[in-house]
From TrEMBL:
Subcellular compartments: Lysosome
Protein's name according to its UniProt entry: Vps41 beta-propeller domain-containing protein
Keyword terms, alphabetized: Lysosome, Protein transport, Transport
SMART domains: CLH (SM00299), WD40 (SM00320)
Gene3D superfamilies: Tetratricopeptide repeat domain, YVTN repeat-like/Quinoprotein amine dehydrogenase
GO CC, alphabetical: HOPS complex; late endosome; lysosome
InterPro entries: Beta-prop_Vps41, Clathrin_H-chain/VPS_repeat, TPR-like_helical_dom_sf, Vps41/Vps8, WD40/YVTN_repeat-like_dom_sf, WD40_repeat_dom_sf, WD40_rpt
One GO BP annotation of this record: cellular response to starvation
Positions annotated as CHCR repeat: 580-722
Keyword flag Protein transport: yes
Keyword Ribosomal protein (UniProt): no
């Protein structure tokens, strides 16, 4: 058997670019069929799960396997002219044929003793073996169709006895026996009847309407039992679905009626002439040829195989495939046949010179078609649903040839070919998950196009799924060459245990030799890499070279406080707040050494001592703070500090304030020293604040001080004596 793509058997020249997913796949039978068709042509077919029987124009019966190979010794010369019909019993042990030569032939495939040839001397168009013929006894019976419907059965003595079951209006054109042997459907020129074998009665006539110019006699009636109670009829251009149902007890009591009746539940008109009919789950498979106007020398159209959904008197085409059968141009509707293996959903389409087997796409077929049409997401969706137990009901529910990984790899290759690198990277996470081997096998595809950056966010880096260190190093090297910021981000993000840190350090150093841009990013990365290798001196050197504040994180993380002493000013320049916080919180250096180190930079010293004093109440460095406050924050801090502290030399503080002419501070210090007279003069003459002077005198409550105030006010503006008068209530 050779399998081909769907296009080998279909033709649709106006098909759109967005192809519709097919429902059926096709296989052309070849092998020994080639030589058979070279000598003759097929007239009918009967299929069994074990084999195929093909009838020919020469009167031969060819018994073949399902691949088209002849079964040795099973070619039978049964008739002198074309074989009209073949029937096989349920067990595949007996076949029966009939022909226009008037003969009926029953052949045992395993014993010549049970062979039978019957010459009726009239045209025999159809035959049906009892499905249980192989059991022998009363089951050794068959029915023929000519001018009558005749049952042949064995008598008590073993003789063959014919019994006319029904007289026919014209020839019996076709028949079909249910698998349980209870009912037989048959057709004549006027319609279809169903015969109850057990009750030996007809259940009535389903009359077939003739359309103008289309006599039913010109068309073969196609009968098929979908099950023991459902009859499918396809005749001319009409489909009927009939149900055999049992009459109610009331119906049977009041009238002399058969126990069963035939109920046509659906009648559908088609746009084509019907060559065959078969069930497919809750759908129908129809073989037919399109209706075309007759013209001289016109070629016949391609036969088509349809899947239709029917409901009541309406149907919808699910798919319609045009079949490129050999020499189809020469054949009409009655030259084609359709048979089916119901349990396997295999449909055998027969033309005089061709046999093609159609079967529904299973999950693997659907997935393969989707792959070939670049519909990878749909294919993956089918696989995911199948894994979750939600697969399609058509064909096998678990794919045999495809997995999420195999389809995913094909999808990955497609995306890389299309240049969709970022999408390809995201796909890897979905497909490979924690399969380290798959990651390692496929990631080289990104390396070959220099797009490891597209997959790097998704590669596994956890302890339960870790790749070969070489993989991570490859990615880092690509970033090193092409994306400095990305390289730095990975160095920060990735666990250094994933790769050889020394090898990466060497690569960075080599890269820096010829690097003209983004040097700071590479130096920062070096600082981190050195810290991973516990080369903290080099790491600190890199950070300080960059003036990068992460140096403080490094110091705290690795307890490197001892390095601060030698580079204290450098650290203060970088971030004095963080430096002071380290000095005060961890106290890695005695305060005296810090003061000594910072005395050359008064601003740094001021900042340190200002924070130091907040945490130390002993006033150790208040002497130094007075001069520093006087320089850097006299307005907010000097006077409050002088009033609060008891740990500074007052005269030295006064000298500083006198030098800078800080009069409010001088007033406070003079008052504290007892030199109230000079303090009052500063208030009056320098500050020119009469209210302050009065308050000062009141505070010290000294008669001499009041006299000095009054004397100083004599030559002052009128407001001064006026304020004094209010004090003394004059």
């Amino acid at each position: 058997m050779s399998e081909h793509s769907l296009n080998d058997y279909t033709s649709d020249p106006e098909s759109s670019e967005d192809e519709i997913e097919p429902k059926l796949k096709y296989v052309r039978l070849s092998n020994d069929l080639k030589s058979i068709f070279h000598k003759s042509s097929a007239t009918c077919i009967a299929v069994h799960p074990k084999f195929i029987c093909l009838g020919s124009h020469c009167g031969y019966i060819h018994i073949l396997d399902h691949q088209g190979n002849s079964i040795q010794g099973k070619q039978l010369k049964a008739h002198t002219v074309s074989i009209n019909h073949i029937s096989i019993d349920a067990n595949g042990e007996f076949i029966a044929t009939c022909s226009d030569d008037g003969r009926v032939f029953v052949h045992s495939l395993f014993s010549k003793e049970n062979n039978l040839t019957l010459n009726l001397g009239r045209l025999v168009k159809t035959i049906a073996l009892d499905p249980c013929y192989y059991k022998g006894g009363a089951n050794r019976r068959f029915i023929t169709g000519d001018n009558n419907l005749t049952l042949y059965e064995r008598t008590f003595l073993g003789n063959l006895k014919p019994v006319v079951l029904c007289e026919s209006e014209g020839l019996v054109r076709s028949m079909c026996w249910t698998s349980n042997g209870n009912f037989l459907a048959w057709s004549s020129n006027v319609g279809v009847r169903v015969y109850d074998i057990n009750s030996r009665c007809s259940l009535g006539l389903i009359k077939w309407e003739e359309h103008s110019g289309m006599s039913t006699e010109r068309f073969r009636c196609n009968l098929r039992w979908a099950d023991e109670k459902t009859l499918l009829i396809g005749w001319v251009d009409t489909v009927r679905v009939c149900i055999i149902r049992k009459r109610s007890a009331i119906e049977l009591a009041n009238r002399d009626l058969p126990e069963y009746l035939v109920d046509p539940v659906s009648t559908v008109q088609t746009e084509f002439f019907i060559s065959g009919i078969a069930p497919l789950d809750q759908q129908l498979v129809l073989l037919g040829i399109p209706k075309v106007p007759e013209a001289e020398d016109s070629q016949s159209p391609r036969p088509q195989l349809y899947i239709v959904e029917y409901r009541d008197n309406d149907c919808v085409d699910v798919c319609a495939d045009s079949l490129s059968l050999r020499d189809y141009q020469e054949y009409g509707v009655n030259d084609y046949h359709l048979d089916v293996l119901l349990g396997e959903n295999q449909f055998f389409v027969v033309a005089p010179k061709d046999v093609v087997v159609a079967s529904p796409y299973d999950l693997d077929d659907r997935i393969q078609w989707l792959i070939e049409h670049s519909k990878f997401e749909d294919a993956l969706d089918i696989l995911r649903r199948s894994e979750n137990g939600n697969g399609s009901n058509v064909g096998n529910t678990v794919p045999q040839r495809h997995t999420v990984q195999t389809v995913g790899i094909e999808y990955l290759d497609h995306l890389l070919r299309e240049g969709q690198y970022d999408e390809a990277g995201r796909l890897c996470l979905r497909i490979f998950e924690k399969d380290a081997q798959l990651w390692e096998d496929q990631i080289y595809k990104f390396a070959s196009v220099h797009r490891l950056r597209s997959v790097s966010p998704y590669i596994p880096r956890t302890s339960d799924c870790k790749l070969n260190p070489h993989i991570y190093e490859m990615i880092l090297y690509e970033y090193l060459k092409l994306d400095a910021q990305g390289f730095l981000d990975l160095v920060k993000e990735w666990d250094p245990a994933l790769y050889n840190v020394c090898a990466v350090i060497n690569a960075v150093l080599e890269h820096l030799l010829n690097c003209e841009v983004n040097k700071n990013l590479y130096v920062e990365a070096l600082a981190i890499l050195y810290s991973y290798e516990k080369m903290y001196d080099k790491s600190l050197s890199m950070y300080l070279k960059l003036k990068h504040k992460d140096v403080f994180t490094l110091i705290e993380k690795h307890n490197l406080y001892s390095v601060i002493e030698d580079m204290l000013t450098t650290f203060m320049d970088l971030d004095y707040k963080k430096t002071i916080a380290l000095l005060l919180d961890k106290q890695p250096i005695p305060s005296g050494i810090v003061v000594e180190k910072l005395k050359s930079n008064k601003l740094h010293l001021y900042r340190f001592l200002d924070e130091y004093d907040k945490k130390n109440i002993k006033g150790k460095y208040h002497r130094e703070l007075i001069s520093l406050y006087a320089i850097f924050d006299r307005e907010n801090k000097l006077l409050p500090f002088l009033k609060k502290s008891e740990h500074y030399p007052i005269q030295e503080a006064l000298n500083i304030c006198q030098k800078e002419k800080y009069y409010p501070e001088m007033v406070y210090l003079l008052g504290r020293m007892g030199d109230t007279k000079e303090a009052l003069e500063l208030i009056i003459n320098e500050l020119k604040d009469m209210q302050h002077a009065i308050s000062f005198c009141q505070e010290h409550d000294d008669q001499d001080l009041w006299e000095d105030l009054i004397n100083n006010c004599v030559d002052k503006p009128a407001s001064y004596p006026e304020k004094l008068s209010r004090v003394f209530h004059i």
